[in-house]
Amino acid sequence: MKRKFFCVLAVVGIFFSTEVFAGMYFKTWCGVEGMTVGPECFENWCDFNEYLQELNEAYCDGQRGKIDWVSDRAVELDFSL
Questions:
Q1: pLDDT tens across 41-60, in order?
Q2: Which of 7, 24, 32, 69 is 20 to 30 Å from 45 at the Cα level?
Q3: What is the pTM of this model?
Q4: What's phi and psi for 33, nearest 5 deg?
Q5: Could you report how far apart the first and last alpha carbons of the chain are, in Å?
Q6: What is the bridge-based pairing of β-strands 33-36 and 20-27?
Q7: How many CB atoms neighbour CB 35 within 10 A?
């Protein structure tokens, strides 16, 4: 009985851990919008800004430009079946 309880508890914990995470929404200068990791995943702001420019290059035909972003917004993901 204890074993079943702990298995159920583990599965429920997995679902709760994947329900909400802090992400970042971005919008490139050419109008593409998306979601990615936030600045807390990088060692410093220089690396974070370089990553944003790489997103610009990937979505805007290799051109760099201004990219707007909104961080610290909770994003809900539903992985339940």
A1: 889 989 988 888 888 888 88
A2: 32
A3: 0.57
A4: -115, 150
A5: 25
A6: antiparallel
A7: 12
The reply to whether 69 falls in a domain is: yes
C-alpha–C-alpha distance, residues 71 and 36, integer Å: 10
Residue 81 lies in a domain: no
Alpha carbon distances (Å) from 67 to 9, 14, 61, 71, 78: 42, 34, 14, 13, 28
Q: Average of pLDDT values for 27-37?
A: 84
Residue 46's domain spans which residues? 2-76
DSSP codes joined into one string, 10-79: HHHHHHHHHHEEEEEEEE-TTS-EEEE--GGGSSSHHHHHHHHHHHHHHHTTT-----EEEEEEEEE---
Written as one letter, the residue type at 38 is G
Segment 65-75 shows an average pLDDT of: 66
